[in-house]
Amino acid sequence: RRTAAVIPAAGRGVRLGPGAPKALRTLGGTPMLIHAVRAMARSRAVSLVVVVAPADGAGEVKNLLDEHALPDRTDILVVPGGETRQESVRAGLDALPEDVTDVLVHDAARPLVPVDTVDAVVEAVRAGAPAVVPALPLADTVKEVEPGRPGEPEPVVATPERSRLRAVQTPQGFDRATLVRAHDSVAVNGEGATDDAGMVEKTGVTVVVVPGHEEAFKVTRPLDLVLAEAVLARRRA
Ligand code: C5P
């Protein structure tokens, strides 16, 4: 079997505040995207990484990848992304060579995922699971609300039992045909899907969970950058 990783990196990162596209912002002086590509390439199972760049930024991303050291045994492709994460992942899937059988989808916004987590996902797919997500139990209790008008208090509808909930991370791993089928059958509307496994669930395929890792958190808001810098500094110490 051959495993490739698709890295959607075409988001603007609005919630992080003004500045460059999120994937191009630096952590410890190195763009998040480079950290994310290295995190995938560190797994011996991953022989190809497809980077999905901002639609108008593929050239810039190619230059960036050329400027940074990456393992020789990993091939890298850059393709332009879409308006939504879902469209960007689709663009990455469309660029995969025929011999790829297994696909990881990994957010550029999770630059610090440890290689053991990547390998655990790859192993579970190779062992026969068509869809695998790394996930962690939640610290917070979660409420479902009835979204109201902006500024008005929102009524709580339900409190799901916390012990049954998991926060899912990436890389999410798939049998290629299963993921392509999910993308073919789920229509793009609004923001698109925020999670590939969710699209697979809608096709009736069972998704399984393996243990995630605290350091696979998503860099979304300014505070996440502070945490990411601290994790990196601790690793380098
Ligand atoms: O916005 P969010 O944090 O959910 O984005 C998750 C990942 O999807 C990021 O790596 C982002 O660059 C990517 N993305 C994309 N194309 C979009 C929107 C988001 O590749 N249009």
Automatic annotation (TrEMBL):
The record marks 15, 22 as: Transition state stabilizer. GO terms for molecular function: 2-C-methyl-D-erythritol 4-phosphate cytidylyltransferase activity. Signal peptide: none annotated. It catalyses: 2-C-methyl-D-erythritol 4-phosphate + CTP + H(+) = 4-CDP-2-C-methyl-D-erythritol + diphosphate. PROSITE patterns: ISPD. The keyword Nucleotidyltransferase applies. Its EC number is 2.7.7.60. Coiled coil: none annotated. This is 2-C-methyl-D-erythritol 4-phosphate cytidylyltransferase. It comes from Streptomyces antimicrobicus. The lineage of its organism: Bacteria, Bacillati, Actinomycetota, Actinomycetes, Kitasatosporales. The gene is ispD.
